[in-house]
Amino acid sequence: MPSKTRILALVVAVVLAVSGCAVGDDVGGARPDQAAEQVEDLLRTRYARWYAGIILDEPAGTMTVYSKPGSDLDVVVRNRFANVDIRFADARLSEQEMLVLTERVMADVEYWRSEGIAVSGAGPSPDGSAVLVMTADGAAGEAERLSDHYRKPIVVERGSAEFAPFSVGPDGIPSGPTSS
Fold first, then answer.
1. Does 176 reside within a domain?
2. Alpha-carbon distance 166 to 180, whole Å?
3. Domain span at residue 104?
4. CB–CB of 58/33 below 8 Å?
5. Could you report the per-residue pLDDT of 45-59, keeping only the tens digit for each?
6. Tell me: the pLDDT tens digits for 106-138?
7. CA separation, residue 178 to residues 8, 70, 161, 171, 174 (Å)
8. What global pTM score does this model have?
9. Continuous segment of H or E residues that includes residue 177
């Protein structure tokens, strides 16, 4: 005769299988920061055409998922992460689109330098509103010129990419930041 523990384990396994959850997917009562990686993995894998980014509000205990309209992304995330306070907001661009635009801008650094715009970095905005581009001046006119050229929204900020110094160990492997 099977033990009560084995019967309970079998019932739990059947419930999980029917509900579509894997044992490792349990985020019941989890804080948004604990579930964010799992949500992001799901969305980048199954909803790359729509997913733009996630912004966590840790003091409020909420996660906002930004995506382009046109998919069941919000329904799937709400069902799979029902115990996490998740909000949804529309995005203008997907992360995928922003990454492609980022690559184009960075490939054109020399062109922009010849046009008087010193581009030093770029990347997707987590809310899907635009690609963020760092320039030496950070002038509004630069954002307009870049947006007009690529026909996509670009926001410019003054700044430059900074790299942390590191040292290489005797085995040839970088050992992380060092003090200078």
1. no
2. 10
3. 95-158
4. yes
5. 999 999 999 999 988
6. 999 999 999 999 999 999 999 999 999 999 999
7. 54, 47, 18, 17, 10
8. 0.72
9. strand 174-177
Summarize the chain as % helix, strand, coil (round to 5): 40, 25, 35
Residue position matching structure tokens 């030093």: 120
Length of the chain: 180
Token couple for 47: 């909803």
In a domain, 111, yes or no: yes
Burial of 133 (0-12, 13-18, 19+ CB in 10 A): buried
Give the helix ranges, DSSP H, for 21-94.
Answer: 32-46, 73-80
Residues contacting 24, CB < 8 A, separation 6+: none
Q: Answer yes or no: do 106 and 85 share one domain.
A: no
Q: By the 8 A CB rule, do 67 and 128 touch? A: yes
Alpha helices in 118-159 (DSSP H): 140-150
Q: Are 52 and 98 in contact (CB under 8 A)?
A: yes
